[in-house]
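Listing S7. Sequence submitted for prediction.
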Amino acid sequence: MKTILKIYAWGVTFLLGAIFINFFSGWLGFLSWYNFLGTGELNLRDGLWLFIGYPFLLGFLGYVLNSKNKKRKISSCFHGKKP
């Protein structure tokens, strides 16, 4: 059950991160995935954002979360607690 809750928490975190990135991209004037799928039109700037910038930020979010999770497991091993 603990594993299922962890997977759910990661999913919610990525969902909230994606929503934030979509809001942020719209605020900066970039095309979001929703707009792109609705119109099908894409210029170079928006293409770079959607296919390089957006995946990079989501990957960075995963990297940060994973590195924090690893640090927690390592530090708990030194303090005699189960990870």
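Caption to Listing S7: primary sequence and predicted structure tokens for the chain studied. The mean pLDDT is 82. The first helix runs from residue 2 to 28.
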